[in-house]
Amino acid sequence: MAQLNGHMQHGQTREGQPPAADPDRPAAIDVAHLVKDYKSTRAVDDISFRIARGSITGLLGGNGAGKTTTIAMIMGLVLPTSGSVHVLGAKIPEQSYDVLGRMNFESPYVDMPMRLTVRQNLTIFGRLYAVRRLRERIDQLAADLDLKDFLDRANGKLSAGQKTRVALAKALINEPDLLLLDEPTASLDPDTADWVRQHLESYRKARNATILLASHNMLEVERLCDRVIIMKRGKIQDDDSPDRIMARYNRDTLEEVFLDVARGRAREGAS
Ligand SMILES: Nc1ncnc2c1ncn2[C@@H]1O[C@H](COP(=O)(O)OP(=O)(O)OP(=O)(O)O)[C@@H](O)[C@H]1O
C-alpha cells in the first residue's frame, strides 16, 4: 500500500477536480449517444461523455468492452452506426480535416512500415502533418524518448518496447492538442513505462494537451488520470475521478474496482 501511495503522489491532479469546462471553448471531445454495430455485434452501445481540455482520461474495460472502437470513432477511422462525435468543436468525420492536424494517436497494434528506418518513418509522418523544422523535431523526440541508438535501424528490427517508444514519438510529432493512446506502455519494462508516463504528464502540462488513453494497467490509470470511464459490453459502467470511483466501490485500488465490474459485483449503494 505504501508503494501504491507513492505512485499516487506523482499524479498531477489526482486529488483535484478535472479541469472546469470553459463555456467559450468547445470540449476536447464530445460524444453523444454513440453506437457502433459490427453486423450482429453491438461494440459500442449508446455512450455519451464530454472531455475537458487539459485533462487526462482513462478508458477502462475488459477485452471487447468497446474501448478501441470508441477511440477509432473519435479519430474518424470507424464510422458510427448512430450518434455523434465532436473533437475540438469539429464534427467527426465530416469536419475531420479541420482538426486532424491538432490530434494524433498511438496504438501498439498499428504497425509502421517495417523496412523503413525509424527516422524515415518519423519523417513521413512529420511531412503528413506539415511539421516545421522536422529534422530538429525528430532529434528532439529522439532525445526525449531515448530513440537515438536505433534512429537509423529498420522499424522491423526493433524490440516491442522500442517500437512502442517510436509509436509514441510518431504520436507526438505534430505536438497534438489531443492525444489518443491505446495501451501507451504495452510491452515496456516497468522503468521505461514509468518514464514514458512522466513524459506524457509533462507534455500535457507544457501544452495543456488533452489525453484519452485506453489501458489495462490500473496503476498507470491511477497515477495519470483525472478521470476514469469504465466500459462494459459497449456501455459506460462508471465515469468519475479515480478517488471517487474507488470510494464508491469501497476499494483501495482501481484493480479491485476493475475486478468488481468484470465479475458483476455491485458497487456500494448501487441497486
Ligand atoms: N472490425 C470488427 N469487426 C467485427 N467486430 C469487431 C471489429 N472490431 C471490434 N469488434 C468487436 O467489437 C467489440 C468491441 O471491440 P473493441 O476492440 O472495441 O474492444 P476493446 O475494449 O478495445 O478490447 P481489448 O481490451 O481486447 O482491446 C468486440 O466484441 C469485438 O469482437
| Stretches with pLDDT under 50, minimum 5 residues | 1-18
Give the proportion of residues in helices. Answer: 25-40%
Sheet of most strands: 6 strands, mixed
Q: Rg to the nearest angstrom? A: 18 Å
Q: Hetero groups bound? A: adenosine-5'-triphosphate
> How do the helices and strands follow one another from N- to C-terminus?
HEEEHEEHEHHHEHEHEEHH
Output mean pLDDT.
87
Number of strands: 10
Distance between the termini: 30 Å
Pfam families: ABC_tran
Family: Belongs to the ABC transporter superfamily.
GO molecular function: ATP binding
Keywords: ATP-binding, Nodulation, Nucleotide-binding, Transport
Could you characterize the architecture of this molecule?
The protein has 271 residues and is α/β, with parallel strands linked by helices. It is 36% helix and 23% strand. The chain has helices spanning 2-10, 67-75, 96-99, 118-128, 134-144, 160-172, 190-207, 218-224, 242-248, 254-262, and strands at 29-38, 41-51, 56-60, 82-87, 90-92, 103-106, 178-182, 210-214, 227-232, 235-240. The strands form 2 sheets. A 6-stranded mixed β-sheet has the order 6-7-8-3-9-10, sandwiched between helices. The chain is globular, with a radius of gyration of 18 Å. The model is unreliable at 1-18 (pLDDT under 50). The protein binds adenosine-5'-triphosphate. Residues 38, 41, 43, 61, 63-69 line the site of adenosine-5'-triphosphate (ATP).
